[in-house]
Specification:
CATH architecture of the largest domain: Alpha-Beta Complex
Mean pLDDT: 95
CATH superfamily of the largest domain: Medium-chain alcohol dehydrogenases, catalytic domain
Order of helices and strands: EEEHEEEHEEEEHHEHEHEHEHEHEHEHE
Number of domains: 2
Helix content: 25-40%
């Protein structure tokens, strides 16, 4: 085992601590990735606050990019030195979900023992199958996608979660077609990427809904045609006025219950609400089923944009290289690992798009 530095959560809703931890070498089907960058996702923060439970101590972080530094047995198509994006999507490729093209909801249980230990040899949980708030990770081969070494890693890491979740929710989950109308509730990191996905898909009107004018201004930069303040008495009326009708799809990118309570009001007959934002466990929303039935409307959950990473990430990388998908401008700040608590606080303030931790080896 080798010693690396990581940000460790030892108690929920407490600052992370920078510690020396132990990392096992890759086993069969695994690779070791030396990270250049890892972004801070709101899911990491929610986990660290105890919103969804889980074992402790733990290393969070799941939106990463770096270079392969070791390859375990039986790994094909990857080699030391390859630049890769690292995701939390660990897929067996054999269960009913994987074989039906839904690897984001793979049903094969993960082994309870991971590659991490504390400095004194005690168990250390590799959260979200990644543990990316660390200098290195050991992950399953299915979790990584090779990318061009020319792409800056601080931009590339954003693809691993926020970009695929937002773009995928529109393209894969909603199946948005050219000429249709979309409402995106929440103009944070995932919301901005949903807006980008709608623009790329050829949406006629893209209406962004958020609590602040500042975020709505940014939403326009990413492709929103119209914006609505969620603080209005009945914001769905302003959205319908902008579109001239209800929306074909509503993407809820925030975990706020009021957003879910009102999402259906934005829909046209036959429309769908795509549920992306994750409220805390135990939080509940309510609906009148008769309306959904009478209007032919529906709701569907979307995990990680329903992506197939080996198919969708290369496509998104190509869009970035063409200048059609914004990544660089999604970054609000760049921080060192020892500044992670400050970066988390900045993210929680609501002003950040995405904060990125850069490691010493970043170029």
């Amino acid at each position: 085992m080798q010693t690396i530095k990581a940000a460790v959560c030892r108690a929920f809703d407490q600052p992370l601590t920078i510690e020396d931890i132990q990392l096992s070498p890759p086993k069969a089907g695994e690779v070791e990735v030396t990270l250049d960058a890892v972004a801070i996702c709101h899911s990491d923060i929610s986990f660290a606050e105890g919103a969804w439970g889980g074992p402790l101590p733990a290393v969070y972080g799941h939106e990463a990019a770096g270079r392969i530094s070791a390859v375990g047995p039986n790994v094909q198509g990857l080699a030391e030195g390859d630049s890769v994006v690292v995701t939390l999507i660990r897929a067996c490729g054999q269960c009913a979900c994987c074989t039906s093209g839904q690897p984001t909801i793979c049903t094969t249980p993960q082994a309870p023992e991971g590659p991490l230990q504390t400095s004194d040899g005690a168990p250390l949980f590799q959260a979200m199958a990644t543990g990316g708030f660390a200098e290195k990770v050991v992950v399953d081969r299915s979790q990584v996608v090779k990318i061009s070494p020319d792409i800056p890693k601080d931009s590339a890491c954003l693809i691993a979660c926020g970009v695929i979740t937002g773009v995928g929710a529109v393209v894969n989950a909603a199946g948005l077609r050219a000429g249709q109308d979309l409402v995106v509730i929440g103009a944070g990191g995932v919301g901005l990427n949903a807006i980008q996905g709608a623009r790329i898909a050829g949406a006629r009107r893209i209406v962004a809904v958020d609590m602040t004018e500042d975020k709505l201004a940014v939403a326009r930069e990413f492709g929103a045609t119209d914006t609505v303040l969620a603080t209005e008495a009945k914001p769905w009326r302003a959205a319908s006025k902008a579109m001239g009708r209800g929306a074909d799809a509503v993407i809820v990118t925030v975990g706020a219950i009021p957003a879910y309570d009102t999402a259906m009001r934005y829909l046209a007959p036959g429309g769908r609400v795509i549920m992306v934002g994750m409220p805390h466990s135990g939080a509940a929303s309510s609906y009148e089923p008769v309306i959904l039935a009478a209007m032919g409307q529906g709701m569907v959950g979307s995990k990680m944009g329903d992506v197939v990473i080996q198919r969708d990430i290369p496509w998104m990388v190509d869009l970035y290289q063409q200048g059609r998908l914004q990544l660089d401008s999604l970054i609000s700040g760049r921080w060192r690992l020892d500044q992670i608590n400050e970066a988390i606080a900045d993210t929680k303030s609501g002003a950040a798009r995405r904060n990125v931790i850069l490691f010493d080896q970043a170029t």
